[in-house]
Amino acid sequence: MSVTMVTPTRPAGEVAPRNKQKVRPARIALHVFLITTAVIWLIPLLGAVYTSLRPYAETSRKGFFSWPDSLSFDNYTDAWSQGEMARHFFVTAIIVIPALVLTLMLSSFVAFVVSRFSWRFNIGMLLLFTAGNLLPPQVLVQPLFQMYRRMPMPETFLTPRGNLLNSILGVILIHVAFQIGFCTFVLSNYMKTIPKELTEAALVDGASVTRQYFQVILPLCRPALAALATLEFTWIYNDFFWAVILVSTGADRPITSSIQNLTGQFFTNDNLVAAASILIALPTLLVYMILQKQFISGLTLGANKG
Amino acid sequence: MATPTSTVPPSAAAPPAAAGKRRRLSQISGRDRLILVVMVSIPLLLHLLLVWVPAIATVVLSFTEWDGLSSVSDIAFIGLKNYWEVFTVFDNRFFPAVFNNLFLLVFLFFGPTALGILFAYLLDKNIRGTRFYQSVYYFPVVLSLAVVGIIWKSVIYSPSQGLVNTVLGRTAEGNQIDWIGDQEKVFSFPLPGLDFDLGLSKNFAAILVAMAWRHAGYIMVLYLAGLKSVDPSLREAASIDGCSEWQTFRRVVFPTMKPINVVVLVITVIEALRAYDIVAALNTPQGMELMSILVTNNLVGEGGGNVGRGSAYGTILLVMCIGFIIWYLINNYRQEP
Q1: Contact criterion met (CB below 8 Å) for B253 and B234
Q2: Does B96-288 carry CATH code 3.10.129.10?
Q3: CB-nearest partner of A51 from B144, B155, B314
Q4: Would you list the domain boundaries of chain B?
Q5: What ipTM did this prediction achieve?
Q6: Do B47 and A38 touch (CB under 8 A)?
Q7: Best of A105, A116, A138, A290 to disrupt the B interface by mutation (most B CBs within 10 Å)?
Q8: Global pTM value
Q9: Which of A73, A283, B53, B136 could form a disulfide with A38 if both were Cys (CB 3.0 to 4.6 A apart)?
C-alpha cells in the first residue's frame, strides 16, 4: 500500500477494520489484561451488591468470601425506611428536574445567539462561561454563602427561611449558574455545525427570532440536548458539595448528600451502608445502562471542538 | 452569498469561514433584537452573579477580617494578615492540605489518567468485546465520588469484613487494618521552617485507589474520541517507515492529539484541585486534609465563620488552577479570530 494514499478519517463511532491476522500471543496478552482489569473494575460494585443482600451478622461471622446462608432485600428496606430515603429522593427530584430544564433552556438561548448572530461580545461571553464552569466551586463558596444568607426571599416552599440559604431554590440556582457554562460551550459548538442557510431561509420567509429558535434550531439540536440532559442529570443528581454546604439540616438534603447522615446512622453496619449506597447509585446506573450512547457523546461533544 | 456583512472583516465572534454569512445585529428588527438581548442577558446575569461575582469577592474578602454574621459594613481590611497566618506555623493544616492536593494531582496524572489513555489506545484497536470493556471501565464515572467513597469504605476497606482485610487475613479483632482511619505516613519528609513532617497518610493512599477507579474511565472516553479522529494513514506511514508500536504512538499519534491532551491534562488538574466529596463524605479523617475542606471549614463555626481566612484558602485554590483554565481556553478558542 502506498504511503501517499490517504484513507479518510474514520467518523466517530465507527471502528477500524478488524485485523485479519492469526491469533498472536500479543493479542492473547491484551485480552488477559483487559479481562483482568474489567474484573477488578467490577469488584467494588458487585461486592457491594453481594454484601448488601446478606445480613451483617452473617458476613461479620463468616467473612466476605463465604457462601450465603440467606439472601434478602432486608437491608434495602431497612435503609429505605431508616434513611428516610423517600423524602430525600423527593427533594432530589424537585431540585434536579427544574435545574436540568433551566440549564438546557438558558444555555441553548445563549448558544443560539452566539452561533447565529455576530455580536461583539460573543467570544468573550463564551470564554466567561467556559472558564466559570472550570472553577473549583470552593473558590466561590465563601462569598456565595454570605450572599445567599442576605438575599431576602418570600417565605415559600422553595425558600422556607426567607433567604436563599437552606432553600431548594438556592441549590437549583447555583446548579443552573454553574452548569450553563458547560452546556453553552457544547451547544454553541453543535449549533455552529448547522448550516447558516437554514436560518437565512427562515429569515427570508419572515420568521421571527423566536420562530427560528423554536422551529429551526432547537429541533435540530435534539441529539446534543439528549446527550447533555443525560450528562447533566447525573452531575446534578450526584452533587454532594452544594447541597451539603447550602442546606444545613440533614433531613432537607437531596439523596446524594444525605449519604453523610446515613453513614453516621448506620455506623457499624457495613451491609446496610452498602445497600443504601446501591439505592443512591441506582438512578444514575440505570440511566447509564439505558442511555450509554448519549453519555459518551455528551462527553465527547464537550471535549472536541465542533 | 454577498450580504453587506461580507465586506466587514471577520468579527470577534465568527470563525472566518462563517463570518460573511453571519448576520449582524443591526440587520434585525427592534423587537427581535430585544428578544435576543433577553435570551442572552438572563443566563449571563445569573452566571455572573452566582459564579464570577463570588469568585472575585473571594479574592477581595481574603484581605479582610469578618465573621460573616455581622453586617457587611463590619468587614475590616487587614491586608495580608490572613495569608501571613496561613503560610506560617500558626496553621498546621495548610501545608498537609496543599501536599495532599498536589500528590493527588501527580497520582491522578501518572496513575488513572495514564491508565485511561492506555485503555483508550487498546480499545481503539477494535478487539472483540470493545463495547463491553468500555461500559465496564466507564461505569464508575456515573457514580458520585461521595458514593464511591462510601462503597469502598463499607465493602473494600471495612476493617472487620472488607475485601482487602479478608484477602490479607487481617479481619480478626485486634489484628485489623483500619484503612480509612489510619493516618500513619507511608512516607514523609521534612520541610524547612515546618516543625512537622509532610507526607502521604495511609488512609489518603487508600482513598486515592478509589478515586483512580472512577477517574480512569472518564479519561478513557475522552481519549477514545480523540483517537478515532486520528487519520489512520499517519499510522500506516509510520509503520511502513519501520516505527515500532510505541514509537508510532509516542511520535505520531500523541502529538496529533494535542488538543485532547490539553483537555485531559486540565480536567485532571481541576479534578485534583476541586476534590472534596469523597473526603467529606467520610467525615474528613485526619490525614486527608484538602484545600477544599479548609475553605468550607471556615464557613460557619462557633461565633460565626472566618470569612477572611476561608477566602484566603479559596484565593490560593484559584491561583493554583487559573493558569490551567487559561491554557484550556487558549487551546479551545485559539483557532477562532
Answers
A1: yes
A2: no
A3: B155
A4: 96-288
A5: 0.87
A6: no
A7: A138
A8: 0.88
A9: B136
